[in-house]
Amino acid sequence: MQKDTSLEVFENKTTVRLESFSTVNSKCKIEDVLSSKGRVLILKLLAERDELNISAIARITNLNHRTTAKHLEFLTKAGLVQEKRFGRIKIFRYRLENSKAHSLKRLFEIWD
Questions:
Q1: In 3D, which of 68, 72, 89 has the Cα closest to residue 80?
Q2: Is residue 24, in this structure, part of any structural domain at all?
Q3: What is the pLDDT of residues 17-66, one digit of tens each?
Q4: Residue 110 lies in a domain
Q5: Helix crossing, 65-77 with 37-49: angle to 10°?
Q6: Looking at beta carbons, which pairs linking 83-86 to residues 24 or more positions away fall under 8 Å?
Q7: H or E stretch at 5
Q8: Which domain holds residue 25?
Q9: What pTM does this model have?
Q10: Total domain count for the chain?
């Protein structure tokens, strides 16, 4: 896997760090994504709310911070979630522009 590179974006005097898409794994299997109840909870939450910080995700899903961080790392590498950094704060956004993420959101809407 390629080493992650960052892109610095300056907006309203705030430095935003967007994770590079060079680490996105487009060959991620759906079994891997849906094999964890925690990952499914995080995906459903972000599909509903668009973006949240890691602490809010952990609190709402009732997962501990470390487990939440590991699941978000996996989902980011799978291309379903995008990480944005504002200094030390990490915000995670559901990537609707990804066709697989869009399809999962539709599945969640139909299933619920």
A1: 72
A2: yes
A3: 444 343 455 578 889 999 999 999 999 999 999 899 999 999 999 999 99
A4: no
A5: 70
A6: 83/18, 83/19, 84/16, 84/17, 84/18, 84/19, 84/51, 85/16, 85/17, 85/18, 86/14, 86/15, 86/16
A7: none
A8: 6-103
A9: 0.76
A10: 1
